[in-house]
Design a protein that fits this description.
It is a multi-pass membrane protein. This is Probable membrane transporter protein. Its main location: membrane. This protein has about 300 residues and is an all-alpha fold. The protein has one domain. The protein contains eleven helices and no strands. α5 runs antiparallel to α10 and α10 packs antiparallel against α11. The N and C termini lie far apart (about 85 Å).
Amino acid sequence: MRALVLLALAGFLAQLVDGSLGMAYGVTSTTLLLLIGTNPAAASATVHLAEIGTTLASGIAHWRLGNVDWKVVGRIAVPGAIGAFAGATFLSSLSTETAKPVMSAILLVLGVYILIRFTAWGVSTRDLNKPVRRRFLVPLGLFGGFVDATGGGGWGPVGTPALLASGRIEPRKVIGSIDTSEFLVALAASAGFLVGLGSAGVNLGWAVALLIGGVVAAPIAAWIVRVFPPRVLGSAVGGLILLTNTRTILNSDWVAVSGPTQTAIYAIIWLVWLGAVAWSVRAHLADQRAAAVIETPPVPRPAPVED
C-alpha cells in the first residue's frame, strides 16, 4: 500500500512537471520504476499504460485553457504513434540486461539535452506567426515516438524543445500541443508492448497509481504553465534525469568504476545541476527586469516655467 501511495505521488509530481513543461512524465516515472528494479520493457509498458489516461486528462485541460494548436497536433501525432509502436516492439525483443543500460543511456542523453537547452538558451518567442512545416513535424514525430517507447519517455524531451527552438509557436501552445498529441503516442506504444510482451511483467496496480496521481495533477499543470518559468523547471528536470540515469549506468556491467570515482562523478553532476538551476533563475529574473523596463513608460518631464 505504501508503494502505491508513493507511486501516486510520483505520478502527481511527474505530471505536474510534464503538464507545465511539456516533458518528463514518462522519463521521470520510468526512471523511478527502474530504480526499484522493474524490468525495462515492463517499466516502459506500465508507464505508457498510465499515460493513456494522464495524457487524455492533460489534453482536455490544455484545450479548455486554449493551450493547443490543433494543426500541430494533427501533423505530429500520427507519425509519433507509428514511431512509438515500432519502438515498443523493438524494446520488447531486448533482454533485461541489455535493455536497462540502453534505456538509461537514452534517458541520459535526453537529460543532458534538456539541461543544456533550457539553461543556455531558455525559450524562444520570435516568429510566432509562422506555420510549422509538415516536413519538419513528420520526422520529428517519428523520432520522438520511437525514443519515447524505447526510453520510457522522450516524446516531450524531443518534441517540446524542437518546437520551442523553431520560435514559431507560443510556448504555452507548444506544451499544450505536445501533451495533447502524446495521448495517441501512448496508445500506440501500449499496443506495441501488448504485441511484444502480452501482459507479462506489466503491473496494473502501479499503472493505476501513476494514473491517479497524473490525472489529479493534469488541470493544475495546465494552469501553471502560464506562470511558472519553463527555463528554471527545464534545468531542474534535466539535472534530475542526468543524476539518476548516471547512477544506473555506473552500476551496470558496461562500466567498471570504483567507489571514490563514482562519488567524484556524482559530486560533479550535483555541482553542474545546482549551477544550471542558479543560472536559469538568474537569467529568468534578468529577463523579467528587462521586460519591466521596456513596458514602463518614461516619466514626462515638466515643461520649463517661463519668467
